[in-house]
Amino acid sequence: MYETNHSLVTEFVLLGLSSSKELQPFLFVIFLLLYTGILLGNFLIILTVTSDAHLHTPMYFLLANLSFTDMCLASLTNPKMISDLLLEHKTISFEGCLAQIFFLHLFGGGEMVLLVSMAYDRYVAICKPLHYMTIMSRRVCIMLVVIEWCIGLIHTLSQLAFTVNLPFCGPNQVDSFFCDLPLVTKLACIDTYVVSLVVVANSGFLSMGSFVLLVISYTVILITVRKRSSASMAKARSTLTAHIMVVTLFFGPCIFIYAWPFSSNSADKVLAVFYAVFTPILNPVIYTLRNKEVKAAMSKLKSTYLKPSQVSVVLRNILFLGIN
């Protein structure tokens, strides 16, 4: 093992999304709006689930945790990417790069496990409805969330264990808008073929393993739903469709980046933008637009906190202050 003090590199240069100075202001506005939408959309889901007693169920408890994880995952890369679009030199410190890698794999690995937990919740609800509340008790839900963070922590520590002590003494340009582990390990001063193979195998095993479990669980659920024709199954199909869309949007880019050996840097950058920006903002849209209970709870929340009388009072006070 090499000690970290052998590294001469104190910072990395992020090449960002585009080198075009004319395009960067436009990208700044677009991604600033998208990041604002990520925060507002996912926070609205968390607020809706916590404030409405009808949504205090295992499915919505896991959904609120998914929104929280999406907010954390997006906040790791988006603020830095947005601010760098206005800067000439896009740099990040060596320690900041390692911290970004650590939390990226913590939240990313945790979200994969959380999506598997949500699939298990749907399996129990559809295939064993009479025993649902017994199996998916409050204790089990909390355990599933704890397992999410534990596996995410084990995953990210095992990743960094092979890279934190690598010596960096030469090139320091990362062809991305954030510190991604496969790109950073290539910059080390030694042959990192074995290290890169272990890193890709680690992430690939988690992403592919989680994806296979999801495919199996959703296949079983779809077979079960197909055998039933009652009106109550319409809700199950709608919820299941939303879950499948989220899984496809999240795991698709991850598998191509970490488990597909023929991807290029340009393709990886596009896919990284997709799961770092578009997936966190699409999750709340998918779950709210396809879920009548969430939309009803949001309408109730709106009527509670945005009453016409309260709005008129605020507008009258603003007008009064403007006149004086």
Derived from helix and strand composition plus strand pairing, the structural class reads mainly alpha
Globally, the shape reads globular
Tally of discrete structural domains: 1
CATH topology: Rhopdopsin 7-helix transmembrane proteins
Q: What is the CATH top level name?
A: Mainly Alpha
Number of helices: 11
Amount of helix: over 70%
What does this structure look like?
The structure is a single chain. By secondary structure, the chain is mainly α. It has one domain: Rhodopsin 7-helix transmembrane proteins (Rhopdopsin 7-helix transmembrane proteins, Up-down Bundle), CATH 1.20.1070.10. Helix content is 73%, strand content 3%. The chain has eleven helices and three strands; from the N terminus they run βααβαααβαααααα. It has helices spanning 24-51, 58-84, 94-127, 132-135, 138-161, 181-185, 193-226, 232-258, 265-289, 292-305, 308-323, and strands at 11-14, 91-93, 173-174. Strands 2-1-3 form a three-stranded mixed beta sheet. Helix 1 packs antiparallel against helix 2, helix 3 (94-127) runs antiparallel to helix 8 (232-258) and helix 7 (193-226) packs antiparallel against helix 8. It is globular and about 65 Å long. The N and C termini lie far apart (70 Å). Residues 1-5 and 318-324 have low confidence and may be disordered.
